[in-house]
Amino acid sequence: MVATHHYLFLAAALFTIGVIGVLTRRNIMIVLMSIELMMNAVNINLIAFSNHLQQVNGQIFAIFVITVAAAEAAVGLGIVIAMFKNKETMNINEIDLMKW
Amino acid sequence: MLELALFYIFGTIAVVSAILVITQHNVVHSAIFLAGTLLSVAGIFLALNAEFLAGVQVIVYVGGILVLFVFVIMLIAVERSTFERQFNRQWKIALITSAILIGELVYVVYQGRDTFVLAEPAVPLVQGAAGNSQQVGMGLYTTYLLPFEIASILLLVAIVGAVVLAKKKTQTE
């Protein structure tokens, strides 16, 4: 029997790794992957509490989070492709067209 | 005991490959380690008695989203980005901020750990439902029917948006 806060610590670790990835990497693909990592951490939290409270609601919310993650990946990768057509780069520091 | 072993095995794999995702130079290696993280998170879901979600995790994340990532990497990956500097100039500030974030999270969860005594099994959402998949399905199609429909519209919008963003400009435009 693993206590629920073990899962919360694991989710906190994964979420923080995702935040570090978003803030420090320059490659846009890895930034998107870090966002997926953060969504997974949220899912672990939801399902840990679903198990903790013996209710299935948390799992249903996790399904919605997965839906949003899929939509986000599709649109995000569409934006990456459109951007790559205009500027041949994957480096987010070079994408500063709207920077004043 | 088995749950503890599962938790530590899958948790270690998840965290180690997550760290490798954000430190690799080659994007394809990052994608492969991301698959490792997602699969071990599916294992964590199994340890938490969420069998349906574990299946969804493997099929949708690893089989869908990650394959999409690999497709796009194959389409646009530039060789020179592997040899460039990988981290931007604000990485020190970013690490300090993240350290504060994890400090806060760990502090809050650690302070509240005594409240995590296992609750009495509440009234199940679906009376008399047998398995986990059946429970999730019944909940999804009764109590959460409206969010379910909105989620399908969200997916439709995402499909159309992705096609519009990625398609070639025609002559008439």
List key phrases describing it.
heterodimer; A: 100 residues; mainly alpha; Helix Hairpins; 76% helix; B: Four Helix Bundle (Hemerythrin (Met), subunit A); 2 domains; 71% helix
Question: Care to describe what's here?
Answer:
The complex is a heterodimer of chains A (100) and B (173). Chain A is an all-alpha fold and 100 residues long. Chain B contains 6 helices and no strands. The longest helix of chain B has 26 residues. Chain B is globular and about 60 Å long. Chains A and B meet through helix 1, helix 2 and helix 3 of A and helix 1, helix 2, helix 3, helix 4 and helix 5 of B.
Set down the secondary structure blueprint.
The complex is a heterodimer of chains A (100) and B (173).
Chain A: H1 4-24, H2 28-52, H3 57-86
Helix pairs in contact in A: 1-2, 2-3
Chain B: H1 2-23, H2 27-47, H3 51-76, H4 91-111, H5 132-141, H6 145-166
Helix pairs in contact in B: 1-2, 2-3
Q: What best-fitting shape of chain B do the alpha-carbon axes yield?
A: globular
Overall number of strands of chain B: 0
On the 0-100 scale, what is the average pLDDT of chain A?
Answer: 89
- Helix-residue proportion of chain B: over 70%
Q: Which structural category fits the helices and strands of chain B?
A: mainly alpha
> How many angstroms does the end-to-end distance of chain A come to?
55 Å
Supply Rg of chain A: 17 Å
DSSP strand content of chain B: under 5%
What's the structural domain tally of chain A? 1
Question: What is the top-level CATH class of chain A?
Answer: Mainly Alpha
The CATH architecture category of chain A equals Orthogonal Bundle
Number of strands of chain A: 0
